[in-house]
Structure formats: C-alpha cells, structure tokens
Amino acid sequence: MSVGATVVMALSVGMATAPPASAAAYGTGAVAVKGPNSEFVPGVDVEIRQGDCSGQTVWFTTTGNTPNAYGAFGITLEVGRYCLLTRQVPADYMYASASTFDVVAGPGNWFTAWLPYGVVVGSVVAKDAWGARIDGVNALVRWGSCTAPGQGVWQNVTSTSRWLDGSFSVSLTAGVYCTSVIGVPAGYTIPVPVQTDVRHPSPAQIVLWIPASPS
Predict the structure, then answer these.
(1) From which residue to which does the signal peptide run (predicted)?
(2) How does DSSP classify residue 149?
(3) Does a structural domain hold residue 38?
(4) Residue 104 and residue 132 in one domain
(5) pTM, whole model, 2 decimals?
(6) Number of structural domains the chain divides into
(7) What span, in angstroms and rounded, lies between the C-alpha atoms of 111 and 115?
(8) Which CATH number do you get for residue 154?
(9) CA 153: distance to chain centroid?
(10) Is 6 a domain residue?
(11) What is the pLDDT of residues 16-71, one digit of tens each?
(12) Do 124 and 205 fall within a single domain?
C-alpha cells in the first residue's frame, strides 16, 4: 500500500466517526403571576408543560409570598417551547389563558402570566341607628348610580343564619351599584338608596342604615 493510500484511508475513517453527544442546554429565570393592575399575586398554582399544552408536565408549583419570591418562582428548564397553565387562583381572580413561551440557553428567561379579575364577593348588611343588625329587610341591588340606576342584579332579604347576621351574600363584578330598600320589618321606615363603588379585593360590604319609625 502506498503512503498516499494510507492517508486517504485515515481521512475516511475519521469522517465515519460520530461526534460525541453534547449535554442538553438549559435556561434559567423566573415566572411571575400578576393581576390587571400589575400587582404580583401569591398563592397561584402553576403548571408548565413541555411543548404545546397537551405535553408532559415538567414543573408544578405555587407562586410564593416571601419578599424574595412574592407572586413568582424561579425556573430551570431545558431549552425549548413550553406551555403555562394556571390551576388554582385566589378568590378575586379568574384563570389566566393558557400561553406558550420559549426558553433560551442561559439566564434571563422571564415570563409573566396575567390574571383577569373575577367577581367581588361580599354582603348587604342592614343596621339600625345603634349599629345592631336587622333581619327582614328586603333590598334590591341595581347596576349604575342612584341618579340613574340600571337593571337589577341582586335581590334578597336580610336574615340570620350560621354564617350571616342581618345580611345576605352577594357576588358582583367591579363597578358602581345602587341598593334600594323595598321592604322593612315593623318599627322601621325605608331609607334613601345607597350608592356603592364595588372594588377589588373582596370582601365588599354594602351597609343599609334603617331608621326607626317615628313614635
């Protein structure tokens, strides 16, 4: 065999040799969960799936409530695409829409999930002039201001039960409401309507002050 043939054979053997497998690349960073006013939201269960939203779960945790991880958590994930799903949210919020994000190698992978507000829960409470709660007050909650009230959205009678005292529960979207008293027990008179700006966070309370009947 000639020297030239030996060189060619050596090159051919080298070209046929597969390169060694490289370690998978990872990215680090954090996921934050925020509400409509950019407030960080702790206590949200978050699931991260590989690929699209039907992929395998690779991360499941809850946003923290400590100063260094308030409404957020750190991640270390292999480079690629992922789907983020919210699985449990506080009472004032609704679930975020499923979203996908891409992790790149190295630090700086920061992602945010946005939670829309849900309903505001609370109660309508009837009280006399001394602050004692009154059962049997029939109240109507209407959308809009008391100068131009709109459609009725809630009507009930205040009562006492295991959980309530001279009140009834309501679930309302944030906004302005007018609450009118349409019936009172003996010994009381109907007061003027009450206008309330219902806002997050829950609970909201609409207080109706019921005057006593003239003696």
Answers:
(1) 1-23
(2) -
(3) yes
(4) no
(5) 0.65
(6) 2
(7) 13
(8) 2.60.40.10
(9) 23
(10) no
(11) 344 444 567 999 999 999 999 899 999 999 999 999 899 999 999 999 999 989 99
(12) yes
Residues 97, 39, single domain; the answer is: yes
How far is it, in rounded angstroms, from Cα 94 to Cα 115? 6
Nearest to 181 by CA among 215, 142, 143: 142
- For residue 105, count other CB atoms closer than 10 A to its CB: 13
Structural domain that includes position 76 = 25-114
Tokens for 56?
């395998």
157 shares a domain with 137: yes
Distance in angstroms (rounded) separating the CA atoms of residues 191 and 91:
32
Amino acid (one-letter) located at 193: P
Total residues belonging to the chain:
215
Q: What is the pLDDT of residue 164?
A: 78
Last residue of a domain, one of 83, 114, 145: 114
Q: In whole angstroms, how far apart are CA 130 and each of 84, 181, 194, 210, 212?
A: 52, 19, 18, 10, 11
